[in-house]
Design the sequence.
């Protein structure tokens, strides 16, 4: 058995392996620049055998995380058997892409957890906000209202599944800001 075959077998045996947080923490200050493993600038790129076909994939891990932020296809080398080696340019592109994926995920989560609607009343514009606290044990939400100057008119705790719509906001204002049911 040659070294290449042994390496391929090791990679195939470790397809499902994740970086443990201990492994990541131990490597925080290290720089690794290998053909299939590249650690630098708070990120780790790991080339793995693609489970879906005969090709290769690359998984990008942010330091301190055991789950990859990004997994994508990786180019075959010239021999059409082994993966193309990682290099600085490819790693930089992967870091940029993985960072963008995380940023979009954070924006999506923020949009899901923080909503607002402007309602025109006889007294002027009222901004009604719903802020969800996604606690694992006891999630809840806060429904609040502010006048056009940003002064708080009311704030109540509601169920995290409360649906903020123009109608529900208007009904809450019309009720004198009584806790919605």
Sequence:
């Amino acid at each position: 058995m040659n070294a290449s075959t042994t390496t391929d077998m090791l990679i195939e045996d470790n397809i499902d392996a994740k970086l443990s947080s201990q492994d990541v923490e131990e490597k925080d200050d290290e720089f690794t620049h290998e053909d299939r493993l590249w650690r630098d600038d708070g990120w780790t790129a790991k080339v793995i055998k693609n489970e879906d076909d005969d090709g290769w994939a690359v998984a990008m891990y942010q330091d301190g995380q055991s789950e990859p932020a990004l997994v994508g296809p990786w180019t075959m080398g010239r021999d059409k058997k082994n993966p193309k080696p990682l290099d600085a340019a490819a790693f930089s592109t992967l870091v940029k892409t993985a960072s963008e994926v995380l940023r979009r995920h954070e924006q999506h989560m923020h949009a899901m957890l923080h909503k607002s609607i402007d309602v025109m009343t006889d007294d002027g514009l009222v901004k009604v906000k719903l802020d969800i606290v996604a606690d694992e044990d006891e999630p809840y939400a806060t429904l609040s209202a502010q006048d056009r100057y940003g002064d708080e008119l009311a704030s109540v705790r509601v169920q995290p599944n409360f649906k903020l719509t123009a109608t529900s906001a208007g009904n809450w204002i019309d009720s004198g800001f009584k806790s919605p049911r």
